[in-house]
Amino acid sequence: MIYTHSHIDHFGGVKGVTTDEDVAAGRCVIVAPTGLVEHAVEENVYAGTAMARRAAYMYGAALPRGPRGAVGAGLGQTTSTGTPTLISPTVSISTTGHTETIDGVRIEFQMTPGTEAPSEMNFYFPDLRAVYGGERNSYSPQPAHATGCPGTRSSRLVCVPDRIDQSLRLTIRRSVCVPPLADVGDRTAHRVHVIAARPLRVPSRSDTSSNQSGWTGLEIAESIELPPALAQAWHTHGYYGSVSHNVKAIYQRYMGWFDGNPAHLWEHPPVESAKRHVEFMGGSAEVLRKARESYESGDFRWVAQVVNYVIFAEPGNTEAKTLQADTFEQLGYGAENGTWRNFYLTGAYELRNGSVGTPTVAAAPDITAALSVKQVFDAVSLRVDGVSAANSHIVIDWNITDENIVHRTELSNGVLIHFDVEGGSADAGSVDATFSVSRLGLLGVLLGGADLGAEIANGSISVAGDPAKLAELAGHLDEPDPNFAIVTPT
Question: What is the pLDDT along the chain (490 residues), one digit of tens a residue?
Fold first, then answer.
């Protein structure tokens, strides 16, 4: 089993093809790029709630199937709504050129971190003259950057073309004296592609995020065009991502959210901004009247923007929701790429029918089970309600019995900090309580909903000091909402 990168749809089905027992017995090896588990945890636990909810929009998993609903997600039909699984890698790849022989098959690996995911690689079968490019060498130059879904940090501008070129040099261009060294190319979620029989064209680098003329990301996205040779090739069009989306994402990576105009430094948040916009425009009835005129003229982008103000100013305005749903549907039907279509149509569906929620759970048991002790407390610290906890001071030591470490958490000034205690709990006088627990027991109590009293009673956890301090700490933690609103304010 080879994990190409740290996105959940590229490792989450592992237990559909192998088991923990087979891996433990050596009957199956798990090969992955270094850092995969760390990044998988960050994406699916730390940011898992928001990313999974947004994924419901991006992949349209809850939409009805058909010409007016979901027809795919660009790279495939949709994502799985089953339970994600994870088995930790047994072979870690950290350098390009690393070779493994598995079941008699030689495999050469190429590291490609920072292209589509922070932990990532390609691999090549030299004896079979076949290269597997994952989603780095996708048959389209339009991946989906910065959508808020799994692993959607924007790639470094120079990283993708450099890694593609390196892949070509390591395989197809390895020798100029013999025929190309790769006859077959395969990419995740794509058909196998025979490449030796014809010239292989690779998109050249375009400086899409250049701010040399002072343009903002929005302005660049509206003005940039693909070179004619690429625009005329159907496979380079944005069936998964889009030029507009990706240019703005690249701009954001290098320039940040602020475009330099002081007017944008301290704008009102969405609801307060919407109320003021609607008032300035003459009230919701006037906004909707003008919006219908724009709808009839086909200016759907503008309708979506102005009607959004009405919905956020007046969440119960049914007329505005209906018009917005109509508008989203028109934009969705006209979208070339599957992800934009799904965003628009899922927004329309929720405006008409209510929330579809989150069809899948990113932080599934196998994912959380891979958390290190440090990552457990990182995840907990992200949930602290700073205002609620502002005046609390709670110090707890965690004696992790199966790892022989003592980890301290200290809540003060509304922030939870944590660290290993050198030499154990030497200054125990300053500690409110000490819990002795295994790493998995810790996971169960802090993230898995296990009952602390029951765990203490059955001997799984022992405690010295005041056990009520943990309940006090828990009282300052926010419970994530996997069904938060997106196209409405609440």
Answer: 999 999 888 999 999 999 999 999 999 999 999 999 999 888 888 888 888 899 899 999 889 999 999 998 887 888 888 889 999 999 999 999 999 999 999 999 999 888 778 899 999 998 888 888 766 555 444 555 555 444 455 545 545 556 556 665 565 544 333 333 455 555 554 544 444 434 344 444 444 445 557 888 889 888 888 788 878 887 777 777 788 888 888 888 888 889 889 999 999 999 999 999 999 999 999 999 999 999 999 999 999 999 999 999 999 999 999 999 999 999 999 998 999 999 999 999 999 999 998 887 777 888 888 889 999 999 999 999 999 999 999 999 999 999 999 999 999 999 999 999 987 655 656 899 999 999 999 998 888 878 888 889 999 999 999 999 999 999 999 988 889 999 999 8
- Could you write out the three-class secondary structure of 387-410? CCCCCCCEEEEEEECCCCEEEEEE
Find residue 100's DSSP bridge partners: 107
Neighbouring-strand partners of residue 271: none
* Spatial distance between the Cα atoms of 377 and 254, rounded to a whole number of angstroms: 30
Q: CA-CA distance, 143 to 157, in Å (whole number)?
A: 13
SS3 assignment, position 280: helix
Lookup result for tokens 């995911």:
117
Between CA 331 and CA 143 the distance in angstroms is 20
Instruction: Write out the two tokens for 88.
Output: 């930790």
Residues 333-371: b if buried by 16+ CB within 10 A, e if exposed? eebebbbbbbbbbbbbbbbeeebbebbbbbbbebbbbbb
Distance, CA of 363 to CA of 80 (rounded, Å): 14
In whole angstroms, what is the distance from residue 94 CA to residue 35 CA? Answer: 9
Please name the residue that has the structure tokens 């496979």.
235
Would you give the DSSP letter of residue 1? -
How far, in Å, CA of 362 to CA of 44, rounded?
A: 5
Structure tokens that stand for 67 in this block: 């010409």
How far is the CA of 128 from the CAs of 49, 104, 107, 124, 132, in angstroms? 42, 12, 10, 9, 11
Residues contacting 28, CB < 8 A, separation 6+:
1, 18, 22
DSSP string for residues in 113-162: TTSSSSSBEEEEETTTTEEE-TTTT-SSS----SSSSTT-PPPPTTHHHH
Q: What are phi and psi of 228, to 5 degrees?
A: -50, -40
Q: What span, in angstroms and rounded, lies between the C-alpha atoms of 243 and 245?
A: 6
